[in-house]
């Protein structure tokens, strides 16, 4: 365990919200923050440690507000304590999904997304960020250029493709999105599903969450059509299907550029170079498929 991990455990144990904390241990999976599991007064909590990350548009005031709203909507754990750089959540006795789990539960997960998009905005308080993926992509392009990324030769072509995708998406319905629907951010206790990790939450098109879920869980085209049919209540018309596919490509491109930036800026121990290569390959494959529509 490195110095940063030891510091994370010490900081989590020293928070003023505890009675008699013990059993602190690091949880895996965080690419932008440290997560610590702690027991106190007979209950378990997860401590999320992470400051604002402006280059990724992550602002912790926004994550906190959406986390509280998602709990009020019955979709996320309660916030037990919050301070700058710290959010303590109730621990859920639930397991993260694997891609195969997502593909096996299309109807209930489509219902979960509908509930999130429809109900979480009703509980929001204060200013909330907008997550427009094409702005995010352009901003990443500026960051990579300013920092002289080794991926710089790829940027003109990728940004030109992004402009084409934005035009293809067309007008959107604005709602509150999670915007980071990795299978591991969906938990189940065997009877229901929960959503966690709202650091990229913000107003967006629902197509981004649908496309992100499908690409992160490796959906086939048939599974994608089934997901959209469950979500919208009718099979997708050609125009919606094309818009959705363009947004799915944008979600993959955004993840690729996110990783390129993280290669330069992140202090978290994670193999960003391999993550970049994997996402770039997935994006290129999806973009190639889009050309045939």
Shape: globular
Q: How many strands in all?
A: 10
Strand content: 15-25%
CATH architecture of the largest domain: Alpha-Beta Complex
Query: CATH class of the largest domain, please?
Result: Alpha Beta
Question: N- to C-terminal separation?
Answer: 49 Å
CATH topology of the largest domain: Aminoglycoside 3'-phosphotransferase, Chain: A, domain 2
Uncertain regions spanning at least 5 consecutive residues: none
- Helix tally equals 10
Q: Number of folding domains?
A: 2
Structural class: alpha+beta
User: Helicity level, as a percent range?
Assistant: 40-55%
The strands making up the biggest β-sheet line up spatially as 1-2-3-5-4
Write down the secondary-structure element order: HEEEHEEEHHHHEEEEHHHH
**How many strands, which pairing sense, and closed or not: the largest β-sheet?**
5 strands, antiparallel
Mean pLDDT: 95
Radius of gyration: 19 Å
Spell out the CATH superfamily of the largest domain.
Answer: Aminoglycoside phosphotransferase (APH), C-terminal lobe
Model description:
It is a single chain. The chain has 293 residues and is of the alpha+beta class. The chain has 2 domains: 88 residues, Phosphorylase Kinase, domain 1 (2-Layer Sandwich); 196 residues, Aminoglycoside phosphotransferase (APH), C-terminal lobe (Aminoglycoside 3'-phosphotransferase, Chain: A, domain 2). It has 10 helices and 10 strands. Helix 7 packs across helix 9. The longest helix is centred in the last third of the chain and has 28 residues. It starts with a helix and ends with a helix. Keywords: Kinase, Transferase.
């Amino acid at each position: 365990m490195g110095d940063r991990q030891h510091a994370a455990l010490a900081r989590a144990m020293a928070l003023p919200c505890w009675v008699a904390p013990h059993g602190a241990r690091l949880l895996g999976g965080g690419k932008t923050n440290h997560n610590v599991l702690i027991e106190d007064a007979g209950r378990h909590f997860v401590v999320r440690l992470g400051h604002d990350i402006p280059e990724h548009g992550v602002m912790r005031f926004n994550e906190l507000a959406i986390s509280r709203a998602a709990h009020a909507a019955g979709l996320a754990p309660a916030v037990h304590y919050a301070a700058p750089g710290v959010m303590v959540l109730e621990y859920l006795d639930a397991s993260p999904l694997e891609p195969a789990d997502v593909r096996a539960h299309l109807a209930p997960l489509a219902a979960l997304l509908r509930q999130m998009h429809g109900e979480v905005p009703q509980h929001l308080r204060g200013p909330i960020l907008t997550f427009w993926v094409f702005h995010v992509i352009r901003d990443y392009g500026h960051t990579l250029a300013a920092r002289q990324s080794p991926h710089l030769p790829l940027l003109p072509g990728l940004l030109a493709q992004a402009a084409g995708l934005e035009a293809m998406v067309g007008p959107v319905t604005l709602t509150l999105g999670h915007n980071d629907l990795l299978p591991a951010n969906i938990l189940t206790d065997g009877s229901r599903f929960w959503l966690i990790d709202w650091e990229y939450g913000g107003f967006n098109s629902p197509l981004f969450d649908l496309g992100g879920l499908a690409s992160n869980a490796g959906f086939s085209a048939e599974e994608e059509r089934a997901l959209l049919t469950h979500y919208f209540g009718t099979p997708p018309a050609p125009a919606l299907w094309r818009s959705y596919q363009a947004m799915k490509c944008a979600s993959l491109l955004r993840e690729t550029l996110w990783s390129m930036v993280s290669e330069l800026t992140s202090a978290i121990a994670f193999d960003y170079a391999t993550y970049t290569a994997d996402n770039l390959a997935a994006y290129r494959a999806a973009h190639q498929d889009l050309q045939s529509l």
